[in-house]
C-alpha cells in the first residue's frame, strides 16, 4: 500500500512537471523556488520508494547500504522543509539581496542537519512484511525539524501576512495542514508512510492555486497578462539591475471595411509579431496596452527600431490595414514606488494622444498631483464639502435679475475654497464628474425647494453638464428622479451643454434632451465661440439659449474681425428665435453695448462674481427694483 501511495505521488508530480515545462513562463523568484520545492519533493518520493525496496530486501543486501538508503530518505525530508521555507521567503522578502541572504542561510542549515541525520543512528523495526519501518535518533531529529519548520512557517505567515500574496498564504497553509495530518498519522502508525504522498499533494495544491503558468497568460493572445506584469515588475523593482520599459497602444488607420474574421486575423498577426521581439518580455495589460520589458538597453533600442519599421507597413494578407502605434517610454524605471504605478502612468500618458511620450519624473509629479486632487474630490463628496455658488444673470428686457448659473466649488479640510479649474478636468478623466454633477444638481434642487428664488424674480437656475455627463445613457431618468424627489418644477431648471466627444455620445445626448424637454426642462448651448461649438451645432441641438463665452465678448471690443463674426452670429441666432446670454461682461461700456445689440441676458463681474448661497439670496433680495446694479 505504501509503495502504491509513493508511486501515485511520483505520477502526480510528473504530470505537474509536464504541464509546467510546456507553458511559457515569466521569470519570477517564486517560480524558481517552486521548482526547487518540486525537485525536493520528487527526490524525496524516489528515496522513500527506494528505502522501502531496501527494507523489503534487506536480508539480501549489506546493512550499510540499507541504513544509508533509509537515512538518505530521512534527510530528504529535511530538504523538503528547507525548500518550503525558501518558497515562502521568495514572496515575503521583496529585496533581492534579502531573499538571497535568507536562501543561503537556509542552504547552510539544511546541509548541517542533513549531515547530522547521517551521523545519528537509525534502527529498523521489522515484525512482518507490512510492519517494517525505521526509528531511532535520526528519525526523531527529522520529526523535530519538521515540527520546527511548521512553527517557523506559521510565524512567517502570521508576521508577514500583509507582505504575502494572500492566495499564496492560504495555499501554504493548506499544504501545511495536509502535511501535518500525514505526519501525525505516520507518527501514530509508523507502518503508514504517508508523508511523501502528502508532500506531493501539497505541491499540487500550490501549483493549481499559484504556480500554474497558464494563470499568467492572456487567453486571447498568449502574451503575459496584467497579473504577470505586476508580479514581474514587483520583482524588478526590488533588484539592483537596470531594466527598460516601453508601452504601446495603437489606433487603426483608415481603410476599407473588413469582416470581423479579417480584423481578427490582422490582430493575431500583430500579436505574433510583437511576441517575437528579441530580448523582450511582452505583456498585454488592460485596455490593450502592450508593455515590453527589456533587461538590456541595446536590446530595447534594437526592439524599438524593429517595431517602428514594421509599423510603417500595412498588415493583413491583402496589406490593407495600417496600425498607428503610440509609444510610452519609461526613461527611468525607478521613478515609481509600486509596480501598479506603471499602469497608472501608462493610462495617464495615453490622454496626451501623441505618437511618443516620455514618462519621466515630471509626469510622475503630475500624476501624483492628479491623484491627490482625485482623493480630495472623493473626500469632499463623502464629507459633504461640495458647495454651489450662484452667479446672477440680468435680463435686459425685464430690467432685473431673472436667472443664475450654478457653479461648483469644493472646500478643503482647512476650509479653503477650491475653484473648479483645479479639479473639473480630473473629475472628468476619472469619471467622478458623474457623481459630482448629481450632487450639484441635488443641491440646486434643494435650494429651489427651500429658498424659493422665484419670489425674487429668478425664473430658472442654469446647471452645467460636462461632456462625460452628456454621454450618460440614464441622465434624463436620473435628473427627472431628483426633480421629483425635491418637488422642483422642470421650468425652474436650465441645463447647459457643451459639444460632445463622439457621434455615439451625441446620439445619447439628443435622446436625453428630447426626454428632458418633454418633461419641461430647457437647454442652453454653453461657451459658444470655443471648442467645437459652431453654427451647425446650434442647428443640430434643440437649445433655447446660446451663451457667448467671455473670450468672445472681450474680442468683440478689441478686434474688428471678431466684432463682424459676432454680429453675424447674433443675427443668425436671433433669426432662429433663440435667446443669447453674454458671459464675462465686466464694464459699463460692455453692458451698454450688449443691451443695445439686443442681448437677452447678461452675466459677468459687472454685476457680481459667483456668490455663496446666502450671499446670492441677499443680493437678489436687495435688487428687485429693476435698477441695473453696478459693481
Structure in words:
- It is a single chain.
- The chain is of the alpha/beta class.
- It has three domains: 2-215, Rhodopsin 7-helix transmembrane proteins (Rhopdopsin 7-helix transmembrane proteins, Up-down Bundle), CATH 1.20.1070.10; 217-359, Alpha-Beta Plaits (2-Layer Sandwich), CATH 3.30.70; 391-407 and 433-621, EAL domain (TIM Barrel), CATH 3.20.20.450.
- Helices cover 55% and strands 16% of the residues.
- It is built from 22 helices and 17 strands.
- The chain has helices at residues 2-21, 29-56, 63-92, 96-119, 137-159, 166-188, 195-211, 226-237, 260-274, 297-311, 340-350, 361-382, 424-430, 433-451, 467-470, 475-485, 503-519, 535-540, 550-556, 560-575, 588-596, 613-621; strands spanning 123-128, 131-135, 244-252, 280-285, 289-294, 323-330, 356-359, 386-395, 400-411, 417-418, 460-464, 493-497, 522-528, 545-548, 579-582, 601-603, 611-612.
- The strands form three sheets. The chain has an eight-stranded mixed β-barrel with strand order 8-9-11-12-13-14-15-16, surrounded by seven helices.
- A hairpin with a 2-residue loop joins strand 1 and strand 2 (131-135).
- Helix 4 (96-119) runs antiparallel to helix 5.
Amino acid at each position: 500500500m505504501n509503495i502504491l501511495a509513493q508511486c501515485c505521488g511520483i505520477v502526480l508530480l510528473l504530470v505537474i512537471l509536464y504541464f509546467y515545462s510546456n507553458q511559457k513562463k515569466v521569470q519570477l523568484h517564486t517560480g524558481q523556488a517552486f521548482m526547487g520545492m518540486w525537485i525536493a519533493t520528487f527526490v524525496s518520493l524516489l528515496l522513500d520508494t527506494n528505502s522501502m525496496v531496501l527494507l523489503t530486501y534487506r536480508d539480501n543486501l549489506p546493512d550499510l547500504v540499507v541504513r544509508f538508503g533509509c537515512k538518505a530518505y530521512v534527510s530528504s525530508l529535511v530538504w523538503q522543509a528547507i525548500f518550503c521555507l525558501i518558497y515562502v521567503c521568495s514572496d515575503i522578502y521583496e529585496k533581492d539581496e534579502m531573499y538571497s541572504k535568507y536562501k543561503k542561510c537556509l542552504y547552510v542549515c539544511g546541509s548541517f542537519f542533513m549531515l547530522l541525520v547521517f551521523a545519528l543512528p537509525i534502527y529498523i523495526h521489522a515484525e512482518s512484511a507490512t510492519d517494517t519501518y525505521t526509528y531511532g535518533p535520526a528519525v526523531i531529529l527529522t520529526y523535530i525539524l519538521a515540527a520546527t519548520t511548521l512553527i517557523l512557517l506559521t510565524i512567517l505567515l502570521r508576521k508577514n501576512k500583509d507582505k504575502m500574496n494572500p492566495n499564496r498564504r492560504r495555499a501554504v497553509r493548506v499544504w501545511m495542514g495536509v502535511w501535518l495530518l500525514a505526519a501525525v498519522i505516520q507518527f501514530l502508525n509508523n507502518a503508514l508512510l504517508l508523508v511523501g504522498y502528502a508532500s506531493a499533494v501539497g505541491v499540487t495544491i500550490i501549483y493549481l492555486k499559484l504556480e500554474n503558468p497558464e494563470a499568467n497568460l492572456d487567453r486571447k493572445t498568449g502574451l503575459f497578462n496584467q497579473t504577470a506584469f505586476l508580479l514581474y515588475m514587483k520583482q524588478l523593482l526590488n533588484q539592483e539591475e537596470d531594466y527598460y520599459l516601453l508601452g504601446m497602444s495603437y489606433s487603426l488607420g483608415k481603410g476599407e471595411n473588413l469582416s470581423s474574421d479579417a480584423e481578427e486575423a490582422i490582430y493575431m498577426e500583430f500579436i505574433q509579431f510583437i511576441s517575437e521581439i528579441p530580448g523582450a518580455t511582452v505583456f498585454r495589460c488592460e485596455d490593450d496596452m502592450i508593455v515590453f520589458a527589456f533587461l538590456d538597453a541595446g536590446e530595447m533600442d534594437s526592439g524599438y527600431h524593429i517595431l517602428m519599421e514594421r509599423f510603417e507597413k500595412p498588415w493583413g494578407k491583402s496589406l490593407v490595414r495600417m496600425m498607428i502605434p503610440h509609444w510610452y517610454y519609461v526613461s527611468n524605471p525607478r521613478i515609481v514606488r509600486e509596480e501598479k504605478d506603471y499602469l497608472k502612468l501608462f493610462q495617464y500618458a495615453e490622454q496626451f494622444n501623441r505618437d511618443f511620450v516620455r514618462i519621466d519624473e515630471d509626469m510622475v509629479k503630475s500624476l501624483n498631483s492628479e491623484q491627490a486632487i482625485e482623493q480630495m474630490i472623493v473626500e469632499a463628496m463623502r464629507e459633504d464639502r461640495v458647495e454651489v455658488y450662484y452667479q446672477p444673470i440680468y435680463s435686459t428686457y425685464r430690467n432685473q435679475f431673472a436667472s443664475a448659473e450654478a457653479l461648483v466649488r469644493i472646500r478643503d479640510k482647512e476650509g479653503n475654497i477650491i475653484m473648479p479649474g483645479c479639479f473639473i478636468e480630473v473629475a472628468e478623466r476619472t469619471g467622478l464628474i458623474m457623481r459630482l454633477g448629481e450632487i450639484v444638481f441635488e443641491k440646486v434642487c434643494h435650494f429651489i425647494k427651500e429658498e424659493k428664488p422665484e419670489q425674487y424674480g429668478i425664473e430658472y437656475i442654469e446647471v452645467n453638464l460636462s461632456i462625460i455627463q452628456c454621454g450618460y445613457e440614464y441622465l434624463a431618468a436620473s435628473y427627472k428622479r431628483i426633480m421629483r424627489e425635491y418637488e422642483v418644477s422642470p421650468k425652474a431648471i436650465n441645463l447647459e451643454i457643451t459639444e460632445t466627444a463622439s457621434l455615439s455620445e451625441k446620439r445619447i445626448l439628443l435622446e436625453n434632451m428630447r426626454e428632458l424637454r418633454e418633461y419641461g426642462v430647457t437647454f442652453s448651448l454653453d461657451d459658444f465661440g470655443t471648442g467645437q461649438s459652431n453654427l451647425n451645432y446650434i442647428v443640430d441641438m434643440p437649445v433655447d439659449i446660446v451663451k457667448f463665452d467671455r473670450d468672445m465678448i472681450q474680442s468683440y471690443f478689441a478686434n474688428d474681425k471678431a466684432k463682424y463674426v459676432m454680429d453675424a452670429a447674433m443675427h443668425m441666432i436671433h433669426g432662429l428665435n433663440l435667446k443669447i446670454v453674454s458671459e464675462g461682461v465686466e464694464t459699463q461700456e460692455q453692458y451698454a453695448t450688449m443691451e443695445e445689440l439686443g442681448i437677452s441676458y447678461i452675466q459677468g463681474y459687472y454685476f457680481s462674481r459667483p456668490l455663496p448661497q446666502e450671499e446670492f439670496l441677499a443680493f437678489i433680495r436687495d435688487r428687485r427694483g429693476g435698477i441695473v446694479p453696478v459693481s
